[in-house]
Amino acid sequence: MVGRPRIRAPRRWSLPPGRALRLDNGLQVLVYDRPGQYVVSAALVLDAPLTSEPADREGVAALVAATLDQGTALHPGTTFADAVEACGALIGATAAHTHTVVHLDVPGARLADAAPLFAEAVMAPQLGDDDIARHARLRLAHLDQLLASSSDRASLGLRHAVLAPSNRAQRLAAGERGTVTAVTGADARAHHARWYGPRGATLVVAGDFPAAGLDALLAAFAPWQNPGQPAPLHETLRPGQPGAFLLDRPGSVQADIRWGWFTVDRLDPRWFALQIASHALGGAYLSRLNKVLREERGFTYGAGLMSSPQRGGGFTTTHGSFRNEVVGPTLELLGPLLDVGAAPITAAEVARARDYLVGVTPLRYATAGGLTDAVVTLLGAGLGPNFIDLQLDRWRSVTPEDATRAAHELVRPDGGTLVVVGDAAALAAPIRAAGWNPVVLGPDAA
Amino acid sequence: MTVPARLGYPIHTATLPNGLRVVVSPDHATPVVAVNLWYDVGSRDEEAGSTGLAHLFEHVMFQGSERVASGEHLNLLQTAGATCNATTWFDRTNYFETVPTGVLDLALWLEADRMGRLLPALTQENLDNQRDVVKEEKRQRYDNAPYGDLIERLLALSFPPDHPYAHPVIGSMDDLDAASLEDAHAFFTRWYAPGNAVLTLVGDIEPADGIARARACFGDVPARPLPPRRRAEPLPPHSGVPRATTVAPVPASTLYVAWRTPALGSRTSDAVELALEVLGGSDTSRLHRRLVRTDATCSAAGSGVIGLARGNSLGFALARALEGADLATIEASFCDEVDRLCDEGPSEAELARVRVQYERAWLAECCRVEARADLISASMLQFDDPDRINRRLADIASLGPDEVRDAARAHLASSQRAVLEYHRGALGGGS
Fold first, then answer.
1. Do domains A19-221 and A244-441 have the same CATH topology?
2. Chain B CB contacts of A10 below 8 Å
3. Contacts of residue A35 in chain B, CB cutoff 8 Å?
4. Closest approach of chain A CAs to the CA of B197, in angstroms?
5. Has residue B2 got a pLDDT over 80?
6. Which strands make up the sheet holding B254-262, listed edge to edge?
7. Any CB–CB contact under 8 A between B149 and chain A?
């Protein structure tokens, strides 16, 4: 019988560098050659935050994104999607709060066929009145699906409460009922005409592909121009008013709990220590939260603490689903579990968090899709791919005092905003008994 | 330039004297190794009154073994920079971790300790705690989720009550409550034998080295005989359109359709899968065009197959109604499209689209070492054919429109469907 094997330390890993190019129209291109990654992942990131939307048309950017593949000048109507599918490609787009991204996934051997279609969707979509109207209806149906999910409603409720109403990021990126219904085809075409352009845009390409594929992609975007494209205003996030909210969901057998704090983004010097602290408190399997609430008490399938860095601010949230009967005891336990003033984060906890975060990094960027998504996220946050190596270095230098201080300053058990989604008739009393005085909102409230 | 029909992932196999099959597929692109262990046991092997036991048991596997403390398996591996998890399905239970190369020996040792020496750590306390956790998982994923009872209802419509696939993997609350320590011990002794498992390593490791390391850790796990299995003969297609209707607090009324399709592993089963892709696999598919675009009665429409190893798979389709649309009208359009596909078959262009989309999805799966390891374990365990991963695209490319049409006629006719209707009701059970 062999004894328990020792671990051999991994060799130091850093992100294999990409190639940076710039087209004459200003489009920045980042290329990552990844042998063996036979499906190319390309993404065009547009510098178009949702602050660019008119206040009474929130959701227009998402409707444009959803409708890019519903026909182009060269391939009207469904002939466009047919052409995309026929070359084995997948084209889609998402409007995030800080940027819009258009994705192309295609086997590298077919990149040259897909490249012109990808550029067409970006440069010359039809955005017809009927298509926009149909997608607005689909968006409302999707919103119904989202709000019917207890956990989605809880996460949305927390975002709503933890950020200030003056922030566009407080509300759903794809828009909410009142404003989505107002969007017309003309609004969509105006948004596209104004904000889709090479200024501030970056094309990320990762995978295993022939040179001709990249040439085709660059050639397809070379004619792209938008002289009238403005520079957008990126918002600075502000905290909402802390409080407690109980969102009624009659008949629920579990409560979705979110306890959140307005915290920081990746540019704050405390970011790296906050990540280490978050992992120790609620990221690892044997984190303080999961160890007690799942592995000792059996209250939940999983409890955690997660930071969601935005651009210009961020928030950090405790999350989990708990059967109704244990909501009171859970709320009583959460505060002490998160109180790093009483129980500072230890050197062993920091080492475990650091070794996990550093250790899984190579795997996270091993696939073309994983790499492209990560670079897109960083670009959307106003950063670049060099942040990946910087972050590895910073994690390595976080001390227990740094982690404790960051958590102590940012994740206060005597503050924050509580959102609970569940059966108000069963939950109001235990929540009050745990010291919270929640505003109760009806089943139809988002 | 075209994608080669045959992929070239290297495959090296060995069988240890205790029966454990080992597959190694080197890939040195990233300094990690994906470790993947499939046990040939799933919810189909549960006895009446013991539903959910296979999955509950999967949880208990993380609560320690003779030389590993409760929770230590996951904790050690996470701390070493690995990802780690397990899942249970109708036909199998898989355990997997992707580890930095220098952590491979520890991962193999941990897996071997729980394969060979679990019972000393399988206590009443561990079982009771994970029973609570699994019941919370059931509440979170099923009981508290819109359409959360969908799979339970589709299975009940599709299989007779005593059939191995008639109940969902998560099981029932009553059966979870009834699971005893003796049941859990017996389940381990019965199914967690080396001869009932496949170990696959994909990544930064050479074949001979990988096999030697597996032998060093697993070689002393004693062989055990395997019990006879419950049989599941292919069931005939549905007749008379069995139908179930429910009013539930769902956000939109929805039509679900199920067919009994062929079990995994035959040309016909592949042809049915392609037919369901043509019918409802994407936004250019027939169902989407008809129901979402043309009729504009639905917010979503699609179809696919839940692949099963014994007797039958489960073909399915869904059509989610827009507010005010009538399910009977939607069903009539749905049946039109199904019967048109069965009559005419797919066009060459449609089938070509579906094939290249299949190719992209397959290549994307294979690009991830952890997914490639899982595909190889599946191929080895279910088909005794680890090279299937390399041949899969050629197999799919060889299916023509006539074969797809014939498979659709034989298994997907509208007269062979079963129907489940969800009607939107109020939260809390009111109407």
1. yes
2. 31, 81, 100-102
3. 29
4. 20
5. no
6. B243-248, B418-424, B254-262, B312-321, B298-306
7. no
What average pLDDT does this structure show over A408-428?
A: 97
Residues 1-20 of B with CB under 8 A from A: 1-3
Widest CA span in chain A: 73
Task: Say whether A298 and B145 touch across the interface (CB within 8 A).
Answer: no
Q: Looking at beta carbons, which residues of chain A come within 8 Å of B6?
A: none
Q: Give A-chain residues touching B352 at CB under 8 angstroms.
A: 86
pLDDT for the residue numbered B426: 84
- Residue B6 phi, psi dihedral angles, 5° rounding: -105, 125
Is the four-CA dihedral B396, B23, B194, B73 of positive or negative sign?
negative
Q: How far is CA B256 from the centre of its chain?
A: 19
Q: Is the pLDDT of residue A445 over 90?
A: no
The per-residue pLDDT for range B20-64, each reduced to its tens digit, is: 999 999 999 999 999 999 999 999 999 999 999 999 999 999 999
Q: Any residues with CB less than 8 A from the CB of B179 and at least 6 apart, and which?
A: B50, B52, B53, B56, B127, B131
**Pairing mode, strands A244-248 and A417-422:** parallel
Query: Distance between CA atoms of B331 and A247, rounded to whole angstroms?
Result: 36
Cα dihedral: A321, A325, A326, A329 (round 10)? 140
How far are the Cα atoms of A5, B66, B107 from residue B114, in angstroms, in the given order? 15, 8, 11
Q: Where are the beta strands (DSSP E) in B89-223?
A: 93-100, 197-203
User: Which domains, ranges and CATH numbers included, belong to chain B?
Assistant: 12-218 (3.30.830.10), 243-429 (3.30.830.10)
Torsion sign over Cα A98, A99, A100, A105: negative
C-alpha–C-alpha distance, residues A234 and A49, integer Å: 7
Architecture of domain A244-441: 2-Layer Sandwich (3.30)
Sequence ranges of the domains in chain A: 19-221, 244-441
Are A137 and B299 an interchain contact pair (Cβ–Cβ within 8 Å)?
yes
> What dihedral do alpha carbons A167, A171, A176, A178 form, nearest 10°?
-30
Quick one: A19-221 is in which CATH superfamily?
Metalloenzyme, LuxS/M16 peptidase-like (3.30.830.10)
ipTM entry: 0.95
DSSP B298: E
H/E run at residue A388: helix A387-397
